[in-house]
Input
Amino acid sequence: MTQTAEFQDGAAYSGGVFMPVAEAKISVLDWGFTRSDAVYDVVHVKDGRFFRLDDHLARFERSMARRRIAIPESREDVKEILVRCVQLAGLTDSYVAMVASRGRPQVKGSRKPADCANHLVAYAIPWIDVIPAEVQERGATLMVSDHPRVADDAVDPTVKNYQWSDLTSGLFDAVDEGFDTAVLCDARGMVTEGPGFNIFAVIGGGLVTPEHGCLHGITRRSVIDICAKQGIACRTGDLPRTDLESADEVFLCTTAGGIMPIARIGNRKIEAGAPGPVTRRVMDAYQAMHEDPAYVTFIDSPTRFAAAE
Ligand SMILES: Cc1ncc(COP(=O)(O)O)c(C=O)c1O
Output
């Protein structure tokens, strides 16, 4: 991939135009900013290929529908815009975001969401990990936060959204106490998710991951698919905090980082190591999925936007 200096930090699409990522701005009056009234999705590019792009686009469309946000661009448009952003940025490994914002009311002074002009912003930037690579290497330390995750019926966590107050509080608490990151529980004491990732516990050789209080991550789905293929027992459902705290192995998973082993949870070291044997198996299979044509989309495919930047 070629890259020009102006796009070296990434490329964005906003207001129907492509530009260097630093030039992409939204209004201070945009409800996406003033009310976190936006939905988004993030897909990754590894070795010049998108991973599960159609699954991310489908989830993005579902999130928009659930929040009654409708952008002018079709799914095919969004796909081509993302490809074009990656091409302009010249990236072979990239963090690629699509954001649908409520926008600004088109009727002066209106407080009605339906009066807003919804719009798409997209960008491709160099790869980032939600847990730094060197931390993943040694295994992250995880705090089970006492800060509760917002209730599902207040903010639907399966709609990918920017309501991160609780996750951010958990992260502050964790870092203040010397941990790398945090996972939050719901009001019932069931584990949910953390700032930017889902969680799996390995208990008695099988996997358990929460069903409620969390985004149904695409990486989580990949892990569930891997388990089905490899005959590893995997259950989605309630995961009590105490079960997580005594689990044989624990790993986090997300688009921006993949499968991330936990070395210590609270004050307890994971004896199986980081990664332990089951986590290692899942990590290897997840890496192999990136070679499977069923899951990848090449970024050198031509787009209708190629001439229109
Ligand atoms: C709150 C939250 N949970 C889970 C995830 C993992 O989802 P995915 O695997 O689709 O990246 C993310 C990803 O950003 C997230 O923000």
User: Anything to note?
Assistant: The chain has a mean pLDDT of 96.
